């Protein structure tokens, strides 16, 4: 699978722990509820990080506490 090769290359370029690759079974060209929940969680974490840059008081919060 070409995507697996891309993931390996990406992990060699950035901190490997920051790269998460998931395969969602039973899907062709659609999405699943679990995939959408994972996307939402990813966006929530990014928004938290952006807010920390702008509002230092929020930096004490963690994504788990949101």
TrEMBL record:
| UniProt keyword terms in alphabetical order | Signal
Q: Where is the signal peptide?
A: 1-16
* Name of this chain's protein: Uncharacterized protein
Species, as recorded: Mus spicilegus
